[in-house]
Amino acid sequence: MQRLHLTHPVIQAPMAGGGDTPALVAAVSEAGGLGTIGAAYLSPQQILDAAAAVRAATTRPFGINLFAPLPAPQTPAEAEAAVAAVAPFCEELALPAPAMPNAPGKTFAEQVEAVLESGAGLFSVTFGLPGADVVAAVKAKGMLFAATATTVEEALAVEAAGADIVVAQGSEAGGHRGTFAAPFERAMIGTMALVPQVADVVSIPVVASGGIMDGRGIAAALALGASAVQMGTAFLTCAEAGIPEAYREAILSAKEDATRVTRAFSGRPARGIANRFMETIDAKGAILPFPLQNALTRPMRTAAAKAGRSEYLSLWAGQGVRLARRQGAAELMTRLAAETAEAIARLSSRKA
Ligand SMILES: Cc1cc2nc3c(=O)[nH]c(=O)nc-3n(C[C@H](O)[C@H](O)[C@H](O)COP(=O)(O)O)c2cc1C
Fold first, then answer.
1. What Pfam families does the entry give (predicted)?
2. Deepest of 135, 234, 287, 308, by most Cβ within 10 A of its Cβ?
3. Quick one: 191 and 157 in the same domain?
4. pLDDT at position 18, please?
């Protein structure tokens, strides 16, 4: 918190795909938290532009996040079936029939170059770890380096890679699972169980992530040994978040049992609110590996966002959805601070 000049132990989770607009990132940083740009799907120029937009709106530190480089995806035997499964949904939206997507060119190294020039105070990754050269370059720039872990073993690997911070992502979390050293089903550990077990074995600060929506959750995470929290879903319903209104409505009306972990949209397990596309594709089971499935479903998701059709959107959200509130980011930050102080005061006044 000192190195990032934070007055609240709150990191707005990077949310690649557009939810985390520069306005949201800047508002959170301006309020004393750490806004983070989810830059995984951005080109180097887009990363520089997003960072410049944040810097124009705040002089306070902010973060940038990428997906760690993954091995090139192999096209599976059921590739034709995966494309065919998406076709009826494209037809419903009057889109051309989907074609087999190409693997994207390797861009991680160029993205990192842009991150190094971005002026961000923190660089974080999920899905694994970058090479030692990247970690060294980030540190040479004076930036902090953070990586996501979903098991204790992964947290130890994050620490061994030289990270300054480990983000312990519980199974409640919205969006993609950060798991990189285990089958994802084995790494579905709840935040309550994961955070203290990670805090017991690492000597770097732990950031708790997954299902934290209000000050009670922040106080609980601090009690479990976390130094701060990383919250995604809670910021998606802020006015500054760049998501379609249909997505915001889906979160605000969702109950705690509404989300599932699915590979249907991107090819990688991610938690979102169940809808017709997710259920149909999961039932068929023919899904391309990440990021090919992501590319395959992108035209459909883009059209659905324009048309306000939530049954085709990847509605990434965590299990805390009932606690989502519609407000501005500054207002949310003020409420979080007051609620955290109140929860801590309430607990402090209890007799042990
Ligand atoms: C819409 C959305 C997009 C996300 N994108 C990213 C991302 O690009 N990088 C990342 O490290 N985590 C990403 N996450 C996961 C968050 O970092 C975090 O683990 C999660 O939001 C915590 O759970 P919560 O949503 O219940 O707060 C995303 C989460 C959501 C909801």
1. NMO
2. 234
3. yes
4. 85
Considering only CA atoms, which of 168, 177, 170 is closest in space to residue 227? 168
CA of 215 to the centre of ligand 1 (A): 18
Cα 38 to ligand 1 centre (Å)? 9
Torsion angle of the four alpha carbons 83, 85, 89, 94, in this order, in degrees rounded to the nearest 10: 50
| CATH label of the domain that carries residue 150 | 3.20.20.70
Reported as half-sphere exposure (CB side, CA atoms, 13 A), residue 97 has a value of 7
Phi, psi of 278 (to 5 degrees): -60, -50
Backbone angles phi, psi at 105, to 5 degrees: -65, 155
One domain for residues 149 and 88: no
Both 82 and 190 in one domain: the answer is no
> Is 350 a residue whose pLDDT tops 90?
no
pLDDT tens per residue across span 124-159 = 999 999 999 999 999 999 999 999 999 999 999 999
- 67-71, 219-223, 271-275: segment of lowest average pLDDT: 67-71
- Parent domain of 197: 1-69+106-244+322-352
pLDDT in tens, 327-337: 999 999 999 99
What is residue 64's predicted lDDT score, i.e. its pLDDT? 98
Nearest residue by C-alpha to atom 8 in ligand 1: 16
Q: Which tens digit of pLDDT belongs to each residue from 2-12?
A: 999 999 999 99
Within a domain: 34: yes
Residues in contact with ligand 1 by the CB-under-6-Å rule are: 13-17, 19, 38, 40, 65, 126, 148, 169, 172-176, 209-212, 230-234, 316-318, 320
Residue with token string 């532009």: 49
Residue 169 alpha carbon to ligand 1 centre in Å: 9
